[in-house]
């Protein structure tokens, strides 16, 4: 009986140990998109959480708080401090913390192909030690960037010529686009996304430089009368759908980290394709609602191309002033990557599965899961 008792105790302990081992790595994490439910960014975040759950066979689950936990300006500090385990971080909002990363945001006017810009941006960042160090210094882990399509002008009056811009007030997303507006005699105002609708509605600005998809996402379709395509061009290509708290990341198993890496390739593809699809649908819907859709004049398009080329020197100078070393070389490298990714995307049907497959093979599959972010 004594031997049986010891055997029973040992068996119970073994069973308890096995049970604990099976559940110890199960985690319920918090995701904070910082955008409204149903928006393109929020759907990208949902794609990430769903794919992680699928790839880990339910080991990792998420509770998502679209707008109730952290706003966009609060996001970096919130994820850094563990208020959320994962969040959508827009580095352009955090200039002081991401001087290296934001060089790439400043170069957004190089591209017009959203799928290519997402790939070029993510590859640059994943192979830029100084960029990744910026994330580590803020106790977060970078997992890729989605992109909008090229920017248009959503406005209450037409903007098809150089004369139309002179003296007009336009909302701009960053300093590069500010310079574009000011180069042609306009007045640029930088406003956060949640203020654009009211600014246009109340006449604070005559229009906004945005992806056409924002006709839906922030309901610009309810206040604008005109959409001008072809200018200013460029994209918003630093939409970091899944930025992970570094302590959370390092508490995951290697397989769980791999699941997050694979899920992020999927999520940035979903986000990018979502923005592309939104833009196409929104333009067609705008036409049915009587909004005039214009093409910019050839003169304005050419003047914009000239501006983009000439502005690279200004971008390099400003980057150097904020402490970015050898900015010219970094700009040239990103320009090469944009060209590479534009070629890679030739003939690729822009679906989330197709883009995700290319992002994985070219970028994410090359990461060392055992070391990345550790």
Automatic annotation (TrEMBL):
Keyword annotations from UniProtKB, A to Z: Signal
Signal sequence residues: 1-26
Highest rank taxon of the organism: Bacteria
Record Pfam families: DctP (PF03480)
InterPro entries, alphabetized: DctP_fam
UniProt-recorded name of the protein: C4-dicarboxylate TRAP transporter substrate-binding protein
Organism: Pseudohoeflea coraliihabitans
Higher taxonomy: Bacteria, Pseudomonadati, Pseudomonadota, Alphaproteobacteria, Hyphomicrobiales
């Amino acid at each position: 009986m004594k031997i049986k008792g010891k055997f029973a105790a040992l068996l119970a302990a073994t069973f308890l140990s096995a049970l604990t081992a099976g559940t110890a790595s199960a985690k319920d994490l918090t995701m904070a998109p910082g955008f409204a439910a149903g928006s393109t960014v929020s759907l990208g975040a949902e794609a990430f959480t769903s794919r992680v759950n699928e790839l880990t066979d339910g080991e990792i689950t998420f509770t998502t708080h679209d707008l109730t936990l952290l706003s966009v300006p609060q996001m970096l500090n919130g994820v850094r401090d563990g208020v959320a385990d994962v969040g959508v971080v827009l580095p352009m909002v955090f200039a002081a913390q991401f001087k290296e990363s934001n060089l790439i945001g400043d170069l957004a006017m190089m591209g017009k192909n959203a799928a290519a810009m997402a790939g070029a941006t993510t590859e640059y960042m994943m192979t830029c030690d100084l960029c990744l160090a910026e994330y580590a210094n803020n106790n977060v882990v970078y997992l890729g960037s989605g992109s909008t399509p090229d920017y248009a002008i959503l406005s209450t009056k037409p903007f098809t010529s150089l004369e139309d811009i002179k003296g007009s007030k336009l909302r701009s997303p960053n300093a590069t686009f500010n310079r574009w507006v000011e180069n042609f005699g306009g007045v640029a105002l930088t406003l956060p996304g949640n203020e654009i609708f009211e600014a246009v509605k109340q006449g604070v600005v005559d229009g906004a430089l945005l992806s056409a998809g924002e006709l839906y996402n922030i309901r610009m379709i309810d206040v604008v009368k005109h959409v001008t395509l072809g200018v200013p061009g460029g994209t918003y290509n630093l939409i970091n759908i899944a930025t992970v708290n570094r302590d959370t990341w390092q508490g995951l198993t290697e397989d769980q980290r791999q699941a997050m890496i694979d899920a992020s390739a999927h999520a940035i593809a979903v986000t990018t394709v979502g923005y592309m699809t939104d833009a196409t649908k929104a333009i067609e819907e705008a036409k049915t609602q009587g909004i005039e859709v214009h093409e910019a004049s050839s003169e304005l398009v050419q003047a914009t191309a000239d501006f983009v080329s000439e502005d690279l020197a200004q971008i390099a100078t400003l980057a150097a002033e904020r402490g970015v070393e050898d900015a010219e070389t970094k700009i040239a490298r990103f320009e090469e990557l944009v060209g590479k990714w534009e070629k890679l995307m030739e003939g690729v049907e822009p679906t989330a599965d197709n883009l995700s497959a290319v992002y994985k093979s070219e970028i994410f599959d090359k990461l060392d899961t055992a070391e990345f972010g550790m």
